[in-house]
Amino acid sequence: MNSKKFLFSMLAIACVSIVVSSCYYDKEDLLYGSNVDCSTIDSKYSTAISPLMQSKCAYSGCHDAGTAAAGVVLENHTQVAASAGRINQRCIIDKSMPPGAPLSSNEILALQCWINAGTPNN
Q1: Domain residue limits, the chain
Q2: How far is the C-alpha of 47 from the C-alpha of 60, rounded, in Å?
Q3: Is the peptide bond before 120 cis (omega within 30 degrees of 0)?
Q4: How far is it, in rounded angstroms, from Cα 53 to Cα 64?
């Protein structure tokens, strides 16, 4: 009878372990990508991304050449494209940049589409 209790206990522990380890939380869009139709979103560097960087990032005291917060300057396409991975993490995923207020959903979509397109200089 002791061996049956032990076997039952081990089976119960194994079942609980399987159930608990299979439960997790992930952001679906980060795992599988966004279902956004980028053909309907202005994500050109010249008309959407550059103005966004100038107004929200590359101003005096932040990511301009004079300040270069965290060593990052975001004043031209080469600099912004080189920082695309960091911009994606901080602005889109973490929403920790810009400080004070995250980007609007339209700004985030434009950045996502531009980064997903390979950061073209268009």
Answers
A1: 37-116
A2: 21
A3: no
A4: 10
